[in-house]
Write a structure and sequence with these properties.
This protein has 583 residues and is α+β, with helices and mostly antiparallel strands. 19% of the residues lie in helices and 19% in strands. It has twelve helices and 21 strands. The strands form five sheets. Strands 1, 4, 5, 6, 14, 15, 16 and 17 form an eight-stranded mixed β-sheet that branches. Strands 11-19-20-21-18 form a five-stranded antiparallel β-sheet, with helices on one face. The radius of gyration is 25 Å and the shape is globular.
Length: 583
């Protein structure tokens, strides 16, 4: 995560817990909201003197200042708006406050249900019934203390920390806000939520720039020469579709010279921050007393066959295996073991940043705005902060691309801007900003690398694996979370670059029906040397999956193990090899 500006060196107070409750409004309808409790599990569970409004100290009587009506976002049509910002800053706006007296107590912050105009074919009718944390862009004010770009692990943490220090925080997220129950399940729905961009260059071809699909779609496939990536657009970032694994970096890797001296000279410096993240995300291993998972048992057998039995373990993950509030008090549900993590889990068991850091930031006053694609940043003179220019995709404005990036909106960050939009998007924003005059290092955009990901399959094995995700839970055939076990081979290597981990995985339902064709046509497959009887059995299983579907009992796909291998990538791409910033 990149940062512009100076952060406030204040130790943040603990976060009050959030619990879903209902209260009857004047119209007789029920409204869901998050209420705060004094004793929080966040940051050690310390008490807060005034948990319902962390900005106000405890006092028998506080008279807040007036709270002007928020200004609508401003359309940017000229190259210099510093004069407008200077005039706007003469009358700084304040956040709405709550009056506290001895006889009254504050009402918790509430977020009204908002009716959203849905893009055609992208969202179901039931989406209107979900309460929202994000606000309409029309309510975005002209300036904040801090602007955070992105809402994943980088942006979510920054928003939470800054909000709890009393700063006014604006979070800009390119994707839409969605909650468990709203994520696509079927292939057709997933395709409608697909966005592709970058340089499509198969093999040694020169490649061609591509840009298609829904620009705020949940699944963003980024092509590059030598590297491709899949990221997620949505409130919560890629944490919405990751595999939930919580593993610390090994110390030998952190000691390599590629890391800053603050890390490589003290490899234990990050330990305390891992503990902080652990207190929020609450990782745990797959319970021993839960149903047995064939794919997990298969991985353990294969680890023993490879001589790595002592390196096999159940991996800690941010999946919930019990009902109840999470570390910041948001009500969660136990995993239904559907294996749908990689397209968005709908059972409410994933501790994504949406239900942790972002919910925490909202509870402490951060304002969240979706469908806002940040284009570039401009530094104002005389240390007056930064202007963040963004394109708003709401109201179907994305259908008019020529005007979308021509009529940019802006918001003023008085103190700092945090770039937490992911390694690729944050780099694109920085390179555009550099082209628009923002001074920065010439190293930005250089030496970009992945994390050595390899996707492999043990196709049509002799045993049942059950690694194909299902849209609804199946008690007789539980699939499990995407990843539950790991063969960790990072230790005891003379060269840390020789370290690797092997994990088992799942294929979500949206990809299940194309998996058979993909495996049949995949290059580099190795056929085992088996008897005629074994080959005949394998052929029947293969044709069963082809014609009777991926869930055919005894079929090839039911007996296919998915492997996720992570190691070190020697790729050293430069800015020409990453998706180019659009002008």
């Amino acid at each position: 995560m990149a940062t512009l500006g100076v952060t406030v060196p204040v130790s943040p107070p603990p976060t009050p817990a959030l619990h879903g409750e209902t209260s009857k409004q004047d119209d007789g309808k029920k409204q869901e909201y998050f209420s705060a409790e004094k004793d929080s599990k966040f940051d050690g569970g310390l008490n807060v003197s005034n948990p319902l409004n962390p900005r106000l100290p405890e006092s028998p009587s506080i008279t807040p200042g007036s709270s002007p009506t928020p200004k609508p976002a401003t359309i940017f049509r000229s190259e210099n708006v510093a004069e407008r910002v200077q005039s706007a800053s003469q009358k700084p706006e304040t956040l709405p406050s709550v009056v506290f007296t001895e006889k009254t107590k504050a009402e918790p912050q509430t977020q009204e249900k908002t009716k959203r105009k849905r893009p055609a074919g992208t969202e179901d009718d039931h989406m209107d019934s979900f309460p929202r944390l994000s606000k309409p862009v029309e309510l975005l004010r002209s300036e904040y203390d801090v602007v955070v770009i992105g809402s994943g692990y980088g942006g979510g943490v920054a928003a939470s920390r800054m909000a709890r220090t009393g700063q006014s925080v604006c979070v800009l997220e390119r994707g839409r806000e969605r909650w468990p129950g709203e994520y696509p399940v079927k292939t057709a729905d997933a395709l409608k939520d697909m966005h592709i961009s970058g340089t499509l260059a198969p093999g040694q071809l020169k490649g061609k720039m591509v840009d298609g699909g829904d620009p705020t779609g949940m699944y963003h496939l980024i092509f590059g020469r030598g590297q491709n990536a899949v990221v997620c657009n949505g409130l919560g970032g890629t944490s919405l579709i990751n595999a939930n694994v919580f593993m610390e970096a090994d110390k030998k890797t952190l000691a390599m010279k590629a890391w800053p001296p603050q890390i490589r000279d003290n490899v234990h410096e990050l330990d305390k921050y891992y503990k902080k993240a652990e207190s929020v995300l609450e990782p745990e291993t797959y319970p021993e007393d839960w149903p047995k998972l064939p794919k997990l048992e298969m991985l353990q057998k294969q680890a023993e066959a490879l001589g790595y039995g002592d390196r096999f373990q159940r991996v800690r993950q941010t999946t919930r295996f019990r009902d109840g509030p999470n570390g910041v008090g948001v009500e969660m549900s136990a995993s239904e073991l559907t294996g749908q993590d990689l397209t968005g889990i709908n059972d409410g068991s994933k501790n994504s940043t949406l239900v942790t850091y972002i919910a925490d930031a909202w509870n402490w006053g951060a304002e969240l705005f979706c469908e806002c694609e940040v284009r570039y940043i401009q530094k104002l003179p005389e240390n007056k902060g930064y202007l963040v220019f963004y394109a708003w995709h709401g109201r179907n404005r994305g259908a008019f691309k020529a005007n979308l990036h021509g009529d940019l909106m802006w918001v003023h960050a008085k103190k700092a801007v945090f770039l937490g939009a992911g390694s690729i998007a944050s780099t694109e924003i920085l390179l555009r900003s550099k082209a628009m005059g923002l001074e920065m290092s010439t190293e930005v955009g250089q030496n970009m690398s992945g994390n050595g990901d390899i996707l492999a399959f043990g196709y049509n094995t002799d045993e049942k694996v059950n690694a194909i995700g299902r849209p609804v839970p199946s008690k007789p055939n539980p699939i499990g979370p995407c990843i539950t076990g790991v063969i960790d081979c990072r230790e005891n290597n003379d060269n840390p670059l020789d370290g690797f981990v092997i994990e088992e995985g799942t294929v979500p339902h949206a990809l299940a029906h194309v998996l058979q064709f993909m495996l049949d046509s995949m290059p580099g497959s190795v056929e085992p040397n088996e008897s005629l009887h074994k080959r005949t059995q394998a052929a029947f299983a293969r044709y069963g999956s082809r014609f009777l579907g991926p869930y055919f009992k005894g079929g090839a796909l039911e007996r296919t193990q998915v492997y996720l291998i992570m190691s070190h990538d020697s790729e050293c791409s430069v800015s020409d090899d990453i998706p180019q910033a659009q002008s």
